[in-house]
Amino acid sequence: MREVAQQASVSVATVSMVLNDNPRISKATQIKVRRIIDKLGYRPNRLAQSLSSQYTRVLAVLLPPLRHAFSDPYFGELLSGICDRADRLGHKVMLESAKPDFLRERKHMELFERRFVDGMFCLGVNDRHHFIKDFAAAGFPMVCVNNYFPDLKLDYVVADYRSGAEQVMNVLLQLGHKKIALIAGASETQTIRDIMGVYSARMGDAGFETDESWIADGRFTEEGGAAAADEILERHPETTAIFACNDKMALGAMHRLVELGKNVPGDVSVVGFDDIQQMAFVNPSLTTVHLPLYEVGARACELLVQRVRGKAQKVAERMPAHLVLRDSTSIVSGRGQ
User: Does residue 180 share a domain with residue 31?
Assistant: First the structure.
């Protein structure tokens, strides 16, 4: 640091403040110092920095203990957004799994109490994850990513599921569908309840009677989507459209419909939710709601760092979603009129 300071004609304290992104340092001085840092190949000791300052520059991601979570496109997009933005902001990211032993030993709180991390992201959490209340009580910097808890004072960044569901229902109703079924996921998740609320309200406003028999739980998986499609068609063989709350369930439903000799979309239209990359390349390509998952992760990271640095205002943001029309939806056939 002394060598950097000497070549940049500044004090060692100024070099330290540049490394810690202190806003008191002018842009011109920051650029000059960082050029010398790059020229000399200097790398600060982050452990020493964390011990001598109030920040560790480490953020934790807490994931539910799901199989293949890291290969799942949904979690992959969120994590990519978080990690890319954290790197740009000079922070490291550590990953933790909320396994029963981890929670029982209160290690999720120990990360803060022992100053291992500055802040935390919670992904894939829902009402069944009671540990989330620990963060609300303690007031540590934590952001829920792509879900939220209306009854708890927790920060969140989420895609606009309500708007996405409204767009789906608008299109299906405009295409003449009256017999629309819903494949939901865990109702313990607020965003899924948002979709279910829009579905029920729009069906009622259009004058079409629906009850719980038109809704099946697809467990967020392809296998669950296929089983849910079976349930729905057994109860309502007159179904002309299936709205699935994620793309995996929509893919499973389409696969099962084809096995049953149904044409998609000629007999049954199918709509998904997420717009994971592969859905443009299935046959037929899937109509789905595009969720800006990468952007949600990146924005959550920006806001968490601001919160760590003392921002007092509550973080509560919804990011816009939009419907992507592809080949799995069409005007209802004559039998569905």
Answer: no
**CB of 228 closer than 8 Å to CB of 216:** yes
Do the Cβ atoms of 232 and 238 come closer than 8 Å?
Answer: no
The pLDDT tens digits of the residues spanning 223-233 come to: 999 999 999 99
Give me the number of domains the chain comprises. Answer: 3
HSE (side-chain half, CA atoms, 13 Å) at 286: 30
Q: How confident is the model at residue 16 (pLDDT cuts 50, 70, 90)?
A: confident
Nearest-angstrom CA–CA distance, 61 and 67 = 16
Domain co-membership, 99 together with 10? no
Whole-structure pTM value: 0.82
pLDDT tens per residue across span 186-202: 789 999 999 999 999 99
Residue 306 in any domain: the answer is yes
Antiparallel, parallel or unpaired: β 322-324 and 287-290: antiparallel
